[in-house]
Amino acid sequence: MGYLVLARKWRPSGFGDLVGQMPAARVLKNSIVQGKIAHAYIFSGPRGVGKTSMARILAKALNCEAGPTPEPCGKCNFCMGITGASSMDVMEIDGASNNGVNDVRELRDMVKYAPSSGRYKVYIIDEAHMLSESAFNALLKTLEEPPAHVVFVMATTEPKKIPLTVFSRCQHLPFRRISAADIRDRLEHIAAQEGLKISRGSLETIARAADGSMRDSLTMLDQIASVSNDIDEELVAELLGITGYQNLAALLGAVLDGRREEVLEEVAAFADRGADARQILKDIVKLTRDLLVYKFAKKPDEALEMGEQDREVLKTLAASAAPEQVLALLSEFLRAETGLRFSSNPRVALEVALLKASYFGSFLPVGETLRKLGSSSISLEDRIPASEEKKTLSSPGRPPRPAAQSAPQKKIKEPDAVFRGNPGDASHQVDVLQPEDGDATGKKDAQANKKNHKNAPGVNPVETKNPPEISTGTTVIKEANGILGVLRERAKNPMVISAFSMAHGSIKDGKNLVLCFPDGLNTELFEEYLKKDQKWIEDEASALFGAPLKLSVAQRRGSGLTKKDLIQKAVVMPFTREALDLFDGKVTDVNEG
Question: Average pLDDT, stretch 90-101?
């Protein structure tokens, strides 16, 4: 007899030998013990998890000389015949090649004959979903009312393709993926029996590469054992063309820490070993997902299917990665998978994706960025060096924002005018202050102002929403919003500027400057910054008002402004304008509350 591959040599011979399928095995064993054997079963699940092996074990259990029994002996003629595929009472049919209605008619004619030597005739239809619609329809009546000595078992990897009319006539037993830990333990047992010297890390690598398939893992072990009986992780990675967990962790660690030169070196090392770029990214996605689970799960050891050595690797990576960074990395890698699949140069696409992701560690959440921006009295332009401003605030197709130009201000020793009374009142007047002797220009301007005032009766020459900035102590403004306008121009903190822009001012009892915010607006953040600058605000407001003023904050009902007006008002706020420029955004909606 020729060499028997490990996948066939170590095929399960009893319900207890099946790995990871205890629920299905328990259902079948109890059915046999209680004599409640169904006439048709559907075994569904991924490849290589034991569907056909379970069907053969069921056939042995039904026809064993000691049976029907949940523990077939495996040594009697019936069991040996089924194991060697020579039994006349157990028929294995390939649904992919025998999928026509004529094949089913032939099967239907054979069903009525009694078994030749056993108790039951068992028909195992592999890849049953490949049967045609006509073939399924021809099989319906036989499935529903077969002879008492017939049992049908249909194995499939795609149960959704089986018609519901067939499903309703069968008992469905789903088979699950086998965990990496179970595969590793089984491989360790088989390797010991075969006299193979293999490291635990190599077993974990094979189990992880098998992706839940026991048959695939045995095939890989067989391939490696044909080269050497002394197996280590390097040999496994070389022969199978897969990436080792340690190497993947080194690559992901370089991405997390922003070591871009090391990222390129690791990718080159993988390429030298013959690893495919698509497979590298696929393995990186799995590792990043494991890291994400490790960061978020309360009991990561139970949630992850891996050995102690791999868990230590994840623990090291998790120490240097924030949860939001890992989430952003995984999202970027999943997007890159689609592009890599159709790329003409997969390695370059992989390097670009990894290098792009390496910058995520230096990014800050938008909320934190805005808080930092608001907590500083330095404007955005002052924080960005001149050499970097073009890079940050400009982009192709978008002209750079012109630098703010301040009009040259004339330096005067005294203000031109003192405002007295309320703007718009009949008693409102402007007293022109005379400049010092020798200042011809100032004298000429003062005369012109007085002349214009006389020639325009009934017109308020100084009515303005934002009064010009005039030295504290010489300007008297009795209108609250006028005071806020001046304070808005003088304030340095963006949050305080925004507060003055959003609030409506009023003077209460001649001694309180009240800032009224829209009803429902969360003013806690504004109040925090106003409180920090309260002394400065009260001093400046008192000097402008000409009498002591205390600052207070109140809420008012809706402003009555339209949505369009609110958006226009929000856009001109300095704090909002800086945020829009920073993120190249726009205001689409404003909630007054």
Answer: 87
Q: Give the CA diameter of the chain.
A: 133
Distance, in Å, from the CA atom of 515 to the CA atom of 571, rounded to the nearest integer, reads 20
Residue 94 counted as domain residue = yes
Which CATH number do you get for residue 512? 3.30.300.180
88 and 139 belong to one structural domain:
yes
Q: Per the domain annotation, does 380 fall within a domain?
A: no
Domain end marker among 142, 157, 174: 174
CATH number of the domain encompassing residue 60: 3.40.50.300
Residues 431 and 573 in one domain: no
User: H helices within 244-299, ranges in order?
Assistant: 245-257, 260-272, 277-296
Amino acid at 430: V
Model-level pTM?
0.57
Which DSSP state fits 20? S
Residue 496 is encoded by which pair of tokens?
Answer: 């305080």
Q: Using the 3D structure, point to which of 361, 376, 401 is the last residue of a domain.
A: 361
Q: Let me know whether 138 and 26 are in one domain.
A: yes
Cβ contacts of 242 within 8 Å, gap of 6 or more: 205, 209, 236, 275, 279, 283
Q: Which residues contact 403 (CB under 8 A, 6 or more apart)?
A: none
Are residues 451 and 555 located together in one domain of the fold? no
Q: Measure the CA–CA gap between 396 and 355, rounded to whole angstroms.
A: 21
Query: Model confidence over 19-32: pLDDT tens digits?
Result: 989 999 999 999 99
Helix (H) or strand (E) holding 552, with range, is strand 550-556
Instruction: Decide if 539 contacts 478 (C-beta within 8 A).
Output: no
Question: How many other β-carbons are positioned within 10 Å of the β-carbon of residue 477?
Answer: 22
Residue 377 within any structural domain of the chain: no
Pick from 77-86, 393-402, 539-548: least confident: 393-402
How many independent structural domains does the chain possess?
4
Task: Count CA within 13 A, CB hemisphere, residue 15.
Answer: 19
Instruction: Specify whether 29 is located in the same domain as 163.
Output: yes
Percent of the chain scored above 70 by pLDDT?
75
CB atoms within 10 A of CB 533: 19
Q: What is the pLDDT of residue 474?
A: 47
Pairing of strands 512-518, 504-508: antiparallel
Q: What's the pLDDT at 496?
A: 82
Checking if the pLDDT of 455 tops 50, the result is no
Same domain, 155 and 130: yes
Chain segment 323-344, per-residue pLDDT in tens: 888 888 888 899 888 888 888 8
Would you tell me how many other CB atoms lie within 10 Å of the CB of residue 551?
16
Helix, strand and coil content of the chain, in percent to the nearest 5, comes to: 50, 10, 35
Estimate to the nearest angstrom the gap between the alpha carbon of 536 and the chain centroid: 46
Q: How far is the CA of 362 from the CAs of 257, 258, 375, 425, 582, in angstroms?
A: 9, 8, 20, 58, 16
Asked if residue 122 and residue 201 are part of one domain, the reply reads no
Expressed as residue numbers, the domain containing 523 is: 476-593
Confirm if 516 and 554 have CB atoms less than 8 A apart.
yes
Q: Does 122 map to a domain?
A: yes
